[in-house]
Each structure stands twice: as structure tokens, then as C-alpha cells.
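User: Can you help me understand a structure? I only have the sequence.
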Amino acid sequence: MHVVFGAGQVGTPLAMKLIEQGQRVRVIRRSHGEIAPGAELVPGDALDPGFCARACEGASVVYHCMNPAYDSKLWAKVVPRTLDNLIAPAGGAGPGPPPPRLERAP
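Assistant: Let's start by predicting it. Here is the structure, written out as C-alpha cells:
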């Protein structure tokens, strides 16, 4: 199971590529909304460490593809917390295959 946190400009193409390669994909996003066809949606907040741990259960690989709005004060507050919340459960995921190669859009 590949767990992708974020369903924007990076997370969606990554999830699509993984699905094309026959991988199981769980997409984590804050709200219900569109995700790559064939992916499992789990809505939740990456600022909640308990949620992140539950969302990563069964993962072989965890991807951080979140991109909060750029504001230096917001990033200073949010980015370290989300990283910490993903690193802890990802550490138990074990080594996985290398990430898929994403081609540059024309």
C-alpha cells in the first residue's frame, strides 16, 4: 500500500502513476474531493499525529506531497509538524520500492 498525503499538483499525478503500475494507493486529503481514479480516499488532517498513524497503517511507502499556502509564518508553524507526524509512522513502513519516475508535462 502506497499512502500519498496530498492530492494537488504533485500527489495526484503520483497516485495516478502508482495506480498505472498496479499499486494500491491511499490518498490523504483534508476534505472529500476528487482523487486519482482507483485510489482509496481517506479524508483527515495531517496536523493530527493520531490520524497520520492510522492513515499509514499497512503502508509500505509514505509520500509527503502536501503544499500549504506559502506564508513564511504558516510554513514555520505547519511544515515541521506535518513532517514529524509523517516521519513517525513512515519509519514503521519499512523499505519500499523506489518511487515511480514522473515525466515532465509538455
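Now, to help you interpret it: DSSP finds three helices and four strands in the chain. Residues 18 and 100 are 7 Å apart (CA to CA). Let me know which part you'd like to focus on.
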